[in-house]
Amino acid sequence: QVQLVESGGGSVQAGGSLRLSCAASRYTYSYYDCMAWFRQAPGKEREGVAHLPIGFSRTSYADSVKGRFTISRDNADNTLYLQMNSLNPEDTATYYCAAGWRNGDGLCNSKYWGQGTQVTVSS
């Protein structure tokens, strides 16, 4: 029912920018009410990067990306974006688009996942 396909990853120099996209299948509120971006570096635990409750303005970001990353959604075509600026090598990871149901903490308890897109930042 729900398909998420990420794109936009690649290799950039430190200080550069990337915009990740997540193309989602047709949206209904019965499928999910929030979307998010997660990332996982080799040998590291998966971490939430940014969370977006659909239909609400409150977004949530990991402290490590605040002021640099922006999550947004185009409601017209169900596409989720992650604008990443001022990238540094610590941002290197596989980034995953996700969707699920928001919890009381403003985070997205994700059920559906994309295949991931690799982001590599060189110094």
Compact description:
The protein is an all-beta fold and 123 residues long. It contains no helices and eleven strands. Helices cover 0% and strands 53% of the residues.
Task: Give an overview in words.
The protein has 123 residues and is mainly beta. The chain contains no helices and eleven strands. The strands form two sheets. Strands 2, 4, 5, 6, 9, 10 and 11 form a seven-stranded mixed beta sheet that branches. Strands 1-3-8-7 form a four-stranded antiparallel beta sheet, with no helix packed on it. A hairpin with a 6-residue loop joins strand 4 (34-40) and strand 5. The chain is globular. The mean pLDDT is 95.
Write the layout of secondary structure elements.
Elements: E1 4-7, E2 10-13, E3 18-24, E4 34-40, E5 47-53, E6 60-61, E7 69-74, E8 79-84, E9 93-102, E10 108-113, E11 117-122
Parallel strand pairs: 2-11
Antiparallel strand pairs: 1-3, 3-8, 4-5, 4-9, 5-6, 7-8, 9-10, 9-11
What is the approximate shape? globular
Helix content, binned percent: under 10%
Strand content: over 45%
User: Major sheet: size, sense and barrel closure?
Assistant: 7 strands, mixed
User: What structural category characterises the helix and strand content?
Assistant: mainly beta
Taking pLDDT < 50 over at least 5 consecutive residues as the criterion, the unreliable ranges are none
Average residue-wise pLDDT: 95
